[in-house]
Amino acid sequence: MPVPPLSQLDERFQHLSCTIDVNFRMRLRRALSWMHAAQIYRQDVDIAFITLWIAFNACYAAGGADKHTKTRNVYEHFFRKLAQYDKDKYLWRSVCCAQRESVLVLIKSKYTFSPYWNAKKDNSIEWAPRLKKTQEFVIQSLQKEDLEAMLSVVFDRLYVIRNQIMHGGAAHGVDYNRKMLTAGHRVLEVMMPIIIAIMMTRPDVDWGEVYFPIDKQCDYGRLLGSLHKNTNLK
Question: Rounded to two decimals, what is the model's pTM?
Answer without folding.
Answer: 0.88
